[in-house]
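Give me structure tokens for this 343-residue protein.
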Amino acid sequence: MASGDGTINNSRSTYSPLGSLMTSFPDRRDWLLGTAGMGFLASTSVAADPTPAPKAESLGYCLNTSTVRDNGKSRPILQLIDIASKAGYHAIEPWIAELDAYVKDGGDLKDLGKRIADAGLKVPSAIGFAEWIIEDETRRKKGLETAKRDMDWVQKIGGNRIAAPPVGATGGTSARDDPKNSNPVFDLVAAADRYRALLELGQSMGVTPQVEIWGFSKTLRRLGEAFLIASECGKLGGCILPDVYHLYKGGSDFHGLKMLAGGTIGIFHVNDYPKKDRAAITDADRVYPGDGVAPLKEVFQALKAIGYRGYLSLELFNRDYWKQDGLTVAKTGLEKLKAAVAA
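Here you go.
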């Protein structure tokens, strides 16, 4: 079991898909045996319910700030708040790098939180890149320190969740990998122990880390892997962060969403993609909802069926959009997102 400092008790380090369910914690074993097959996924929530959408709508609409970068560069956070508010979003999902730039420029995060609230926006999630899952214990401890700082910042601006992707453990050649140590983690129960350490840290600060799926990664590329890590960590309150593009890229079947419960999902990233092979498609290929071939109708029907009532966050990395006016892109994205949900 993971301790608070990120060290791992290796008593569960041998992973077997079935064995992990039947031999983990005694207090959970009885619960698992009392469920009907795999139906426990649909009937039991890993986390508390997601931040609820505004009462007037069944789902909330959030702008992930990557969508409106300026020729690839992050805009100042105050400008991003203005764009999200004027475009009509209910919430904003900032990146930690944007908060860092604001702090370095002399900004006060509690004041920033007030500005966000005054603009009529919520912060249901933020994007961080702490190394919480990697094999190297020393770097993992440093990753928890980074996560602690990031969570403190998120809490100060009024947020309650942060993304927890498999940074440094993707085993690939993405720019987001660390070339010195990008070894994938194949022992998902060990990864669950590491998530527990991160989750306990977050819960002590009022911010929940969300196990994020990265489709290009050799670790956490599939929906089932993310759910296993969250459900096998041995502590209630965890959740996952799915993304339409990453589910396709990683090879997950979208029908898997129907096996979850609404509270299992912290926030849901929405985008679309063109008809392109999984191996060749990249982040830059993402397009507005409805402009591609993703089965968005089935996705939104699944989210409704499982009782998800949180935020849909528009996350795009389209280079053509980045050349356009940020407010125009934000408005267009919201219009197309709402149209896709309505359809």
